[in-house]
């Protein structure tokens, strides 16, 4: 039995996936509805598609803003901080999978240049350790250490997610050069509208399937609301609206096909942006400092020489 148990774990990466989800769940209150970045990790080898879009947009259909803060330039083997800002109105509540209302969760994916990776804890300053203690940052996959994923985490306390990054050294990593590199980030708040298998979540606005008259509305807090619509031919069609959604219609209303039956419950969304960062060669900095010093010294000597020349001219005129 022990050998079979070990072999099952060794044959699949699913154990690590489940462990990752479990750890992230510990960081999020049980009353929240969770986003599932692990879905993207399983379905997509790379989260950034060829057209530049980050795959989170396939499930989080609403567009929202996201901000990325990073230094303009960094040095080899330097640990630097990158901050992803995911702003939203914290007073708003989202509909959970159970139909109840709860706070929003957030998540982010940061696509770094090749060679960049998550900084080890032993290289973090006390300030960076404090900033990153509330989130669990993981690489996107064992082969893509330069892509980092966070979430779901509680949105009220994590509208700013701090990523400690270790810059590569071109002297030891021949894939990297002293160059300007792009950083790509995607951030979502709240639940998505589509599951990875293509099915809709209950975080959607429900539409009428036919045109007709609403003849009955039967509310059930557990199973949802049953809306009966009679078409022009006298046929009755029943639609089930999941629990927790607020209706826009009432009995005896006339509705058209594809007319919204509920208020749009989605208060979240996804956004992405990018930024450039320069991996700076220290020799260039030393050279620039030396050049600036020599230039400044030359200018000072020129001014001193000019003053001496003016004194000689004044002495000759007095003579």
User: How confident is the prediction overall: mean pLDDT?
Assistant: 84
How large, in whole angstroms, is the Cα Rg? 30 Å
Bin the strand percentage.
25-35%
* CATH fold assignment of the largest domain: Immunoglobulin-like
Order of helices and strands, N to C?
HHHEEEEEEEHEEEEEEEEEH
Provide the helix percentage: 10-25%
Largest sheet: 6 strands, mixed
Q: Superfamily at the CATH H level of the largest domain? A: Cytochrome f large domain
Uncertain residue segments? 1-35
- List the total number of helices: 5
Give the overall shape: elongated
**How many angstroms separate the termini?**
113 Å
**Domains (count):** 3
Please list the strands of the largest sheet in the order they lie side by side: 2-16-11-6-9-8
CATH architecture of the largest domain: Sandwich
How many β-strand runs?
16
CATH top level class name of the largest domain: Mainly Beta
Which structural class do you get from the secondary structure elements? alpha+beta
Give an account of the 3D structure.
- The protein is α+β, with helices and mostly antiparallel strands.
- The chain folds into three domains: 37-198 and 267-280, Cytochrome f large domain (Immunoglobulin-like, Sandwich), CATH 2.60.40.830; 207-260, RNA polymerase II/Efflux pump adaptor protein, barrel-sandwich hybrid domain (OB fold (Dihydrolipoamide Acetyltransferase, E2P)); 288-313.
- It contains five helices and 16 strands.
- It has helices at residues 2-11, 14-26, 37-43, 126-132, 282-318, and strands at residues 67-69, 73-74, 79-85, 94-95, 101-102, 105-111, 117-118, 138-141, 144-154, 160-166, 180-189, 212-220, 224-230, 236-241, 254-255, 269-279.
- It has a six-stranded mixed sheet with strand order 2-16-11-6-9-8, with no helix packed on it. Strands 1-3-10-7 form a four-stranded antiparallel sheet, with helices on one face.
- A hairpin with a 5-residue loop joins strand 4 (94-95) and strand 5 (101-102).
- It is elongated.
């Amino acid at each position: 039995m022990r050998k079979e148990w070990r072999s099952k774990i060794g044959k699949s990466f699913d154990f690590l996936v489940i462990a990752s989800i479990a750890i992230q769940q510990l960081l999020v209150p049980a009353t929240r509805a969770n986003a599932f970045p692990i879905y993207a990790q399983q379905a997509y080898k790379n989260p950034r598609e060829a057209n530049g879009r980050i795959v989170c947009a396939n499930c989080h259909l609403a567009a929202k803003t996201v901000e990325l803060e990073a230094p303009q330039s960094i040095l080899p083997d330097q640990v630097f901080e990158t901050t992803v800002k995911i702003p939203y109105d914290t007073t708003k509540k989202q509909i959970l999978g159970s139909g109840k209302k709860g706070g929003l969760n957030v998540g982010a994916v940061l696509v770094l240049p090749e060679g960049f990776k998550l900084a080890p804890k032993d290289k973090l300053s006390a300030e960076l350790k404090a900033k990153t203690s509330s989130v669990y940052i993981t690489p996107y996959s064992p082969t893509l250490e330069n892509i980092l994923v966070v979430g779901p985490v509680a949105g009220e306390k994590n509208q700013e997610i701090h990523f400690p990054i270790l810059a590569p050294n071109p002297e030891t990593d021949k894939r990297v050069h002293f160059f300007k590199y792009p950083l790509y980030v995607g951030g979502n708040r709240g639940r998505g509208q589509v599951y990875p298998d293509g099915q809709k979540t209950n975080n959607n606005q429900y539409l009428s399937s036919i045109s007709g008259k609403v003849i009955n509305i039967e509310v059930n807090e557990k199973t949802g609301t049953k809306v009966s619509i009679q078409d022009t031919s006298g046929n009755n069609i029943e639609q089930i609206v999941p629990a927790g959604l607020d209706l826009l219609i009432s009995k005896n209303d006339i509705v058209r096909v594809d007319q919204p039956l509920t208020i749009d419950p989605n208060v979240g969304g996804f956004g992405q942006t990018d930024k450039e960062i320069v991996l700076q060669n220290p020799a260039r900095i030393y050279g620039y400092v030396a050049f600036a010093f020599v230039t400044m010294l030359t200018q000072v000597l020129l001014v001193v020489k000019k003053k001496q020349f003016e004194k000689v001219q004044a002495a000759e005129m007095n003579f």
